[in-house]
């Protein structure tokens, strides 16, 4: 009976956001070194946590993950489960915070993302292996813009980008998103430049739930098409029946261990990082 109850409530649970910290409690450190509160810039939100795998060297790959929260909420503290999972596979992970509304608006969070990458590349104790960006939802937009748009001047340093449930291009009409993006060209959320500007962008992995009603799956589908038209590489993983949060939960070790989520997203992400780590 308990199994049936969990099966009925699991889809709602996975999309509630509540499992993130529980996943961290259930994910062992496996010998990883965790350094918290490293400052990459001035201000209370320009901090990051760094997780180094056992035996990390200068050549260890580094994954930089940006949290979601509609550019209004969210914290790096919720994603220790992700850092520990990838560290167990030999990948270092940085979790930056960034400025949020109402103290910040576009392009402040993008500037913070670029600053975090620059700080990590210049820090002598941080691995200098292949550099990847990753993000979920609003953080996925940040990762996408850094990887695709040459104006942020960081994509040449990237080996790849993983975008999970990421908004790529649309005209916001609801507040406060409309005000957050009011300074952007046309007031649009736009991570994907034209085809000419996208040439030279790093490879992408796009993960999206087909039942995502917060950020429709068409965002990832259209980006994959645009990247292909520009001659680039984009792998698209659509999770059947998954909503907005479920793809992130599917990347947690407990969800895979207990069969609460299908492992396709995890295998696709780990395979992508390994394929482009050289």
- How would you characterize the largest beta sheet? 8 strands, mixed
**What is the H/E string?**
HHEEEHEHEHEEHEHEHEHHH
Mean pLDDT: 90
The percent range for strand residues is 15-25%
CATH level 4 superfamily: Alpha/Beta hydrolase fold, catalytic domain
CATH-level-2 architecture: 3-Layer(aba) Sandwich
Low-confidence stretches: 1-17
Treating each run of at least 4 consecutive H or I residues as one helix, how many helices? 11
* First and last CA, distance: 48 Å
CATH topology group: Rossmann fold
Computed structural class = alpha/beta
What gyration radius follows from the Cα positions, in whole Å? 18 Å
CATH class: Alpha Beta
Q: Indicate the overall shape.
A: globular
Tell me the helix content. Answer: 25-40%
Number of strands: 10
Q: Could you provide a short overview of the structure?
A:
This protein has 278 residues and is an alpha/beta fold. It contains eleven helices and ten strands. It has one domain: Rossmann fold (3-Layer(aba) Sandwich), CATH 3.40.50.1820.
Write the topology of this structure.
Elements: H1 2-14, H2 19-25, E1 33-39, E2 47-52, E3 62-66, H3 80-87, E4 92-96, H4 108-122, E5 131-136, H5 138-148, E6 160-164, E7 169-170, H6 177-180, E8 189-190, H7 195-198, E9 204-209, H8 218-229, E10 234-239, H9 246-249, H10 253-257, H11 264-275
Parallel strand pairs: 3-4, 3-5, 5-6, 6-9, 9-10
Antiparallel strand pairs: 1-2, 2-4, 7-8
Helix pairs in contact: 2-3, 4-5
